[in-house]
Amino acid sequence: MPALLEIKKISKSYPLKSGVFGSSTVQILSDISFVLESGQILAVVGESGSGKSTLARQLVNLEQPEQGGIFLQGKSYAAIPDLQKRTRMIFQNPAASLNPRKRVFQQLQEPLRNLTDVSALKQSDVIYDCLQRVGLSKSQAQLYPHMLSGGQRQRVAIARAIIVNPQVIVADEAVSALDVSIQGQILNLILDLREDMGMSWLFISHDISVVKLIADTVLVLFAGRVMEFGPAKQVLETPLHPYTQKLMQSVPDQELSNPVLIDKELVSTDVGLISRDEAVLDSACVYLARCSIADKRCHEIIPPMINLGQRSVACLKA
Fold first, then answer.
1. Whole-angstrom distance, CA of residue 121 vs CA of residue 60
2. C-alpha 277: how far from its chain's center?
3. Nearest of 238, 248, 243 to residue 222 by alpha carbon
């Protein structure tokens, strides 16, 4: 039986402005492969510039990869007519992603009209039920986004994503713009929705302490390449790749083991913006410039993904 979502060697680049020497491109994603199983929360982590948001856009078909393919239950994205219903996205800033001129009710009604065959008579019941599911009241359906708090707006964004019963939700830094106490509430909501509705989540974050609370599996990105992939407990507690080890060393030693009662500070671990000049190497490891254990082989080849038990790592010295 195929995985719910399978990504096979996708790559993505963008054109740069043309100059006197002609046009050029910058490579953002290179040979990305992983799987997301049914009912699973997969966290994608990495510093700013690692390609996380670009990956998110490929997974909800806002953009198409130049190479490789994305498959939902064994079918190519190109062969799925209702893909927009089956894969949904939650953006980082709900104030920007919600329409300021439409009431909450209208914003939830739009995907029902466009993506489902729910009759007009039943739409109100579906909308009110969905609001209740995300912790909002029926009366709040008549409010505009500016009349809600940041956490309430994010709950509306989540409701808009789940109202069509998708199979996969891509959450791109969905809690990073929220206060710490509200972050915990939204993370708990995501866990509850996964349990109640059975959908799978791809949770993009630069905050390792948040990932510890929510993820089943972890994908580590650096300069558009996968550095490590596997069960969250193994990747975060015994990282194999030098880059994953550096990420984990930047996290304060806190016991964030209870996703229901979150009362400790969630500390950001964004360790800096990647220089693409540093990262784009055609025949060497992309982490070479920062790695303290690199040897001659690391200068000569791009490390392949090596399977080690339940996880895989792109390091010749793992």
1. 30
2. 25
3. 243
Distance between CA atoms of residues 309 and 233, nearest Å: 14
| Strand order through the sheet with 311-313 | 87-90, 168-172, 200-205, 41-45, 217-222, 225-231, 311-313, 306-308
Q: Within 10 Å of residue 112's Cβ, how many Cβ atoms?
A: 21
Output the CA torsion sign for 262, 87, 161, 101: positive
User: Is 214 in contact with 187 (CB distance < 8 Å)?
Assistant: yes
Coil, helix or strand for 229?
Answer: strand
| pLDDT for residue 18 | 65
CA 51 to chain centre: 11
Could you tell me if 216 and 42 are in contact, meaning their C-beta atoms sit under 8 angstroms apart?
Answer: yes
Question: Mind listing the pLDDT tens digit for each residue in 83-139?
Answer: 999 999 998 888 888 999 999 999 999 999 999 999 999 999 999 999 999 999 999
Q: Which residues lie closer than 8 Å to 258 by C-beta, 6 or more apart?
A: none
Q: Match 């920007």 to its residue by tokens.
A: 96
Beta pairing class for 217-222 and 41-45: parallel
Q: Please tell me the total number of residues recorded for the chain in this structure.
A: 318
pLDDT at 20: 65
- Mean pLDDT per 10-residue interval, the chain, length 318 residues: 93 81 82 95 93 95 96 96 95 88 97 95 96 96 95 95 97 85 91 93 90 95 96 95 90 49 32 44 84 91 93 92
Contacts 24+ apart (CB under 8 A), 75-82: 82/115
Tokens of 1: 């039986």
Q: How many Å apart are CA 87 and CA 162, to the nearest integer?
A: 10
* Topology of the domain covering 5-96+166-313: Rossmann fold (3.40.50)
Estimate to the nearest angstrom the gap between the alpha carbon of 172 and the chain centroid: 5
